[in-house]
Task: inverse folding
């Protein structure tokens, strides 16, 4: 991954947070080195997880949280179709699935036309944009209210710092998933 902002231009906390995120990103992307398009889409476990899908998901998750940093809760649209409730979605009885949920599910899959080069290039672009945002934000303690969704506490807020910590944790978690998937595919690991 490339660095968009000179590390020396950042304060120590931003440098450390961005370095931790870069390390987690590297652990994730290293797992796909040398794999074919087909291997990137293989699902070696009973779940739908594949290596290409994990990278797509992490890129989308990071991009979404960075939009939240800039725009606030309106950046995370979790609107439901008319007449559909969260309970309907949870029960699997919703008459219509919202597009954002379909997009989220597709982030975990290799779709026709997805290639390792394109997935990694998108992730690099997301990483560069994230670093620009972190460098430009005035205060890491600045907060936005979280959008209404069953997975957020009602009335909750999240600071820029907390967003970065969340993105680092989720990226690292998925790097671990990716390492297991890679080892299952061909016995190789990223470490």
Result:
């Amino acid at each position: 991954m490339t660095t968009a902002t000179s590390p020396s231009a950042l304060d120590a906390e931003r440098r450390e947070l961005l370095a931790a995120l870069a390390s987690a990103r590297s652990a994730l992307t290293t797992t796909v080195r040398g794999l074919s398009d087909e291997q990137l889409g293989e699902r070696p476990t009973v779940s739908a997880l594949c290596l290409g899908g994990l990278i797509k998901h992490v890129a989308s998750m990071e991009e979404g949280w960075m939009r939240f940093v800039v725009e606030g809760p309106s950046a995370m649209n979790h609107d439901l179709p008319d007449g559909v409730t969260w309970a309907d979605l949870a029960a699997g009885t919703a008459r219509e699935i919202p597009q954002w949920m379909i997009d989220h599910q597709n982030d975990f899959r290799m779709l026709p036309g997805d290639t390792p080069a394109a997935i990694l290039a998108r992730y690099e672009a997301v990483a560069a944009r994230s670093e620009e945002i972190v460098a430009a934000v005035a205060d890491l303690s600045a907060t936005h209210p979280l959008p209404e969704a069953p997975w957020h506490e009602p009335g909750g807020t999240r600071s820029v710092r907390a967003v970065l910590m969340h993105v680092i944790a989720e990226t690292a978690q998925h790097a671990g998933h990716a390492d297991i998937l890679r080892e299952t595919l061909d016995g190789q690991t990223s470490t």
About this structure: Confidence is low (pLDDT under 50) at residues 1-5. The first strand starts at residue 143 and ends at 145.
